[in-house]
Amino acid sequence: MAMPKIARAEGAVAIGAGVHWIGAFDPDLRSFDIILRTANGTSYNAYAVRGSAGVAVIDTVKANFAQSFFSRLESVAGYDEITAIVQNHLEPDHSGALPELLRRAPAATLYVSHQARTMLRGLIDTSAFEQRIVSVGTGDTVTLGDRELLFLNTPYLHWPDTQCTWLATAGMLFSGDFFGCHYCDGRLFNDAVGDFRSSFEYYYANIMRPFRTHVRQALDLIEPLPLQTIAPGHGPILRQDPRDYVRRYRALSAPALHAADSRTLLVFYLSAYGATRRMAEAVAAGAESVGAEAGEVRVSLHDLEGGDIPSFVDLIEEADGLVFGSPTINGDAVKPVWDLLSSLATVDIRGKIGAAFGSYGWSGEAVAMIEDRLRGLKLRVPVPGVKARLVPTDEDFAACRELGRQAALHLLGRALPRVLDMASLA
Ligand code: FEO
Fold first, then answer.
1. Which of 6, 174, 231, 286 is a plausible cystine mate for 165, CB 3.0–4.6 Å?
2. pLDDT one digit per residue (tens) for the chain, 426 residues
3. Is the CB of 233 inside a 6 Å radius of any atom of ligand 1?
4. Which atom of ligand 1 is nearest to the CA of 92?
5. CA 234 to ligand 1 center in whole angstroms
6. pTM value?
7. How many whole angstroms from 61 Cα to the centroid of ligand 1?
8. Which residue lies with its CA nearest to atom 3 of ligand 1?
9. Is the CB–ligand 1 distance for residue 161 below 6 Å?
C-alpha cells in the first residue's frame, strides 16, 4: 500500500509577523543519538526574526542539512542584514551550520548562555570569531530595532547550555529541545500535522525526564508569559493552544505524591531455586522492622522474572532506596538485573541508597558487580552486600535482615557511622 504523501514546505514558512521558519526536514531518520527511535523522522527547526534594525537567526541545523537552511534563510534575509545569531542549544543537530553562518554573516553577534560560552570552544573552532560571542542570562535582551529578544536561562534541558528566547511582540517562545519532538511533517504546525502525541511524550520521557527538576524550574519562568506560539527545535510548531503543552510538561514533571516524612525502599530479586528469593524476603523484613518502629519506611518486593521494565523504572524514579538481589551464574549477575540497571538513564537516581545481595555456588561475583554498577549510577552504597553460598544459613538470613534494617536507617538518616574493620582491608 502506498504511503500517504505529506506536503513538504519547500521554502521559508511565515510563522508570525516578520518571523520565518528556515529549518530542515529529515524524514528518513530512524534513530537519534543512537538510543532514540525516530519512526517519523525529525525536523531541525531554525528561525529568522526581522526587526526594523536587523535580523536575528535563532538556531541552525545539522551540518548535512545546511544547504536547505541557507537557501531558506537567503529567501527571507540578506547575510549583511543579520545582526544577531542566537544559539539556544549547542548540540550539533542545532549548531551544525553555525560556523558557516558566522562566516557568511560577518556583522552578526552570537548570543549563547553563560554555560554555553565555554562548551562552544569544545565543539567548534571559535578562534576566528571569539570577539563576536556574547553570553547572556535570564533578563538579558538584544534589540532588533522595533522589537527585542529576551533570554531565559533554562539549563539542563537537556544539556547544561540550554536557554529559551522570548519574542514579546509576537508572544513567541523559541524553546530549543524543550517542548520538541522527533516528528517530521511538512505541514509544520500542530493544528495541521497528524497526531504526534506519542512522539511528544516519548521525547519528554527520553530526553527531559532525567532533568525534571530543571523542567519545573524552566516552567516557572515560562508559565507567566503571554504565550501565543511555542517554536521548538524539533517537530511541530505549537501555535494552537500552546498552554496545553506547558500543562502537559507540568504534569509529566510533577513529583510523586507521597508523605514527606515517609521513605520508600524497593527490593528487586531474581531467584533460580528460591535461595535469593528467601534472602530478599529477609531484606524486606529487616527494612520493615525499622518502619514498624517509626512508621516511615514503605518496603515493596519485586520479582524481576517476567516483570515489566518501564513500570519498574517508574517505581524506581519515585523510590528512595533500591536493593537488588541476584544469584551468580557463570560469574555474573543475571541478565534481567542488568536489563533493569541499564534502563535507568532516563530517570534521576543520583543520591538514592543502593545495596545488593544474592546466593552463589562457588564464585559469587554478582553482588560486588551490582554494587559497582550502583556506584557508577551515582547511588550511595553505604551498607555492605550479603552473599550466601548455596542454601542460605540462619546467619545469612540474619545478615540479610540487618542489610535491610541498615538500608532503612540510612533512608531515615538514622544510621550510625560505619566502623571500618581495618583487618578486613588488609
Ligand atoms: Fe536537539 Fe539536544 O539536540
1. 174
2. 334 345 566 799 999 999 999 999 999 999 888 778 888 999 999 999 999 999 999 999 999 999 999 999 999 999 999 999 999 999 999 999 999 999 999 999 999 999 999 999 999 999 999 999 999 999 999 999 999 999 999 999 999 999 999 999 999 999 999 999 999 999 999 999 989 999 999 999 999 999 999 999 999 999 999 999 999 999 999 999 999 999 999 999 998 766 667 899 999 999 999 999 999 999 999 999 986 555 589 999 999 997 889 899 999 999 999 999 999 999 999 999 999 999 998 899 999 999 999 999 998 999 999 999 999 999 999 999 999 999 999 999 999 999 999 999 999 988 876 655 566 554
3. yes
4. 3
5. 8
6. 0.85
7. 10
8. 91
9. no
Q: What are the sequence ranges of the domains in the chain?
A: 13-253, 263-411
CATH of the domain spanning 263-411: 3.40.50.360
Residue nearest to atom 1 of ligand 1 (CA): 177
3-state secondary structure the chain: CCCCCCCCCCCCEEEECCEEECCEEECCCCEECCCEECCCCEEECCEEEEECCEEEEECCCCHHHHHHHHHHHHCCCCHHHEEEEECCCCCHHHHCCHHHHHHHCCCCEEEEEHHHHHHHHHHCCCCCCHHHEEEECCCCEEECCCCEEEEEECCCCCCCCCEEEEEHHHCEEEEECCCCCCCCCCCCECCCCCCCHHHHHHHHHHHHHHHHHHHHHHHHHHCCCCCCEEEECCCCEECCCHHHHHHHHHHHCCCCCCCCCCEEEEEEECCCCCHHHHHHHHHHHHHHHHHHHHCCEEEEEEECCCCCHHHHHHHHHHCCEEEEECCCECCECCHHHHHHHCCCCCCCCCCCEEEEEEEECCCCCHHHHHHHHHHHCCCECCCCCEEEECCCCHHHHHHHHHHHHHHHHHHCCCCCCCCCCHHHHC
Determine if ligand 1 sits within 6 Å of the CB of residue 232: no
For residue 177, the CA-to-ligand 1 centroid distance in Å is 5
Same fold yes or no, 13-253 and 263-411: no
Q: Is 263 in the pocket of ligand 1 (CB under 6 A)?
A: no
Topology given in CATH for the domain delimited by 13-253:
Metallo-beta-lactamase; Chain A (3.60.15)
